[in-house]
Amino acid sequence: MRYQISGKQIDVGEALQTHVKSEMGELVEKYAQRPTECIVVFSRSAHEYVCETVIHLSTGLNAQAKGHAVEIYAAFESCREKLDKQLRRYKRRIRNHHNHRTAPVEFAGGSSYILAASDETEDAEPDTLQPVVIAEMEAKIPSITVGEAVMQLELAGHRMLVFRNEGHGGVNVVYRRDDGNIGWIDPRNSR
């Protein structure tokens, strides 16, 4: 497994890197058989340290968590505990997902844009109806089943996930609703 351990405007020493590698190695070995990459980023937010971790699994799924604490090791432990809880909750589903999949998850490319917020007041008429693009990035769209998309949404902690439905090849969206339920948009089924 590849480790990428870094700090945003803080120095991450060898002792912390060794600790992170050993703890994450144990965690991932316990729940996910073949992880591919673990990205850990430490940063400061006022008086607290923040640890953000993303684990890429060979099944195409990602697990991520964020921990806060006054000390850097405690922030990592908080993050690790959240990942442990996520992976423990989905252990059976992750392993079943890997056993039923004969080929790795395929990713299609897509474009992702960040649009500038409107600075104008509600009463003023905008000069143009075209939004201003302030950033353009490459997005990866996985080709997975609806169940796998819901599991990915839960593991990653995102509010929504765009994916290509393996059942019919169309683009679908799953999202977390305000009432706590999961919504699924399948344009192919609309009439």
UniProtKB/TrEMBL annotation:
<dbReference type="InterPro" id="IPR036567">
    <property type="entry name" value="RHF-like"/>
</dbReference>
<dbReference type="InterPro" id="IPR050574">
    <property type="entry name" value="HPF/YfiA_ribosome-assoc"/>
</dbReference>
<dbReference type="InterPro" id="IPR032528">
    <property type="entry name" value="Ribosom_S30AE_C"/>
</dbReference>
<dbReference type="InterPro" id="IPR038416">
    <property type="entry name" value="Ribosom_S30AE_C_sf"/>
</dbReference>
<protein>
    <recommendedName>
        <fullName>Ribosome hibernation promoting factor</fullName>
    </recommendedName>
</protein>
<comment type="subunit">
    <text>Interacts with 100S ribosomes.</text>
</comment>
<keyword id="KW-0963">Cytoplasm</keyword>
<dbReference type="Pfam" id="PF02482">
    <property type="entry name" value="Ribosomal_S30AE"/>
</dbReference>
<comment type="function">
    <text>Required for dimerization of active 70S ribosomes into 100S ribosomes in stationary phase; 100S ribosomes are translationally inactive and sometimes present during exponential growth.</text>
</comment>
<feature type="domain" description="Sigma 54 modulation/S30EA ribosomal protein C-terminal">
    <location>
        <begin position="130"/>
        <end position="183"/>
    </location>
</feature>
<dbReference type="Pfam" id="PF16321">
    <property type="entry name" value="Ribosom_S30AE_C"/>
</dbReference>
<keyword id="KW-0810">Translation regulation</keyword>
<dbReference type="InterPro" id="IPR003489">
    <property type="entry name" value="RHF/RaiA"/>
</dbReference>
<dbReference type="InterPro" id="IPR034694">
    <property type="entry name" value="HPF_long/plastid"/>
</dbReference>
<comment type="subunit">
    <text>Associates exclusively with 100S ribosomes, which are dimers of 70S ribosomes.</text>
</comment>
<comment type="similarity">
    <text>Belongs to the HPF/YfiA ribosome-associated protein family. Long HPF subfamily.</text>
</comment>
